């Protein structure tokens, strides 16, 4: 009983810490948006000036993914997708912020990463620079795939497929798109994401037979599975 209570207290403390972190992050983002609107910075720092190594960025994205995912319990998925009223299929429990806050924060993180990718691509004024940013994110997406971070991979691909990016035809003509098309093929929704599910099984197998920590991470979008 003591062991059970100790494990329960640790779990509750972890969940409380996660919720406090979400509140702090949301407050910081809101403050930055207000400050940006009132006084835009004179110089915008592009992502290549912060981190120019695709593998390093993929690693950092994976750390963020794992940290945010660790706070989500199975009960949040139940509350998110079970309907309140069995007679009214339009009312979902997903709008209950207090019960699914960690899950909703994870969804918001995915969306923020999508918009970050699209914004970074659209920021440069010259086509050559935009093409360079696109190729950088393609390399980041490839490293995410190699690590097994499929959630960030999907977010990066989604950001590149946003209309402000996809309409840049002249920019895309300067990009070597072979790797991008391969990654898109892995996330193709055809056959209920057959290619993705195959890649996920491969990541799970590699995790079980891995000999180093670098090979042990497999992180899946939407379903919330992590393999160590």
Automatic annotation (TrEMBL):
<dbReference type="GO" id="GO:0005886">
    <property type="term" value="C:plasma membrane"/>
</dbReference>
<dbReference type="InterPro" id="IPR036964">
    <property type="entry name" value="RASGEF_cat_dom_sf"/>
</dbReference>
<dbReference type="InterPro" id="IPR001895">
    <property type="entry name" value="RASGEF_cat_dom"/>
</dbReference>
<keyword id="KW-0344">Guanine-nucleotide releasing factor</keyword>
<dbReference type="GO" id="GO:0007265">
    <property type="term" value="P:Ras protein signal transduction"/>
</dbReference>
<dbReference type="Pfam" id="PF00617">
    <property type="entry name" value="RasGEF"/>
</dbReference>
<protein>
    <submittedName>
        <fullName>RasGEF domain family member 1C</fullName>
    </submittedName>
</protein>
<dbReference type="InterPro" id="IPR023578">
    <property type="entry name" value="Ras_GEF_dom_sf"/>
</dbReference>
<dbReference type="GO" id="GO:0005085">
    <property type="term" value="F:guanyl-nucleotide exchange factor activity"/>
</dbReference>
<feature type="domain" description="Ras-GEF">
    <location>
        <begin position="53"/>
        <end position="228"/>
    </location>
</feature>
<dbReference type="InterPro" id="IPR008937">
    <property type="entry name" value="Ras-like_GEF"/>
</dbReference>
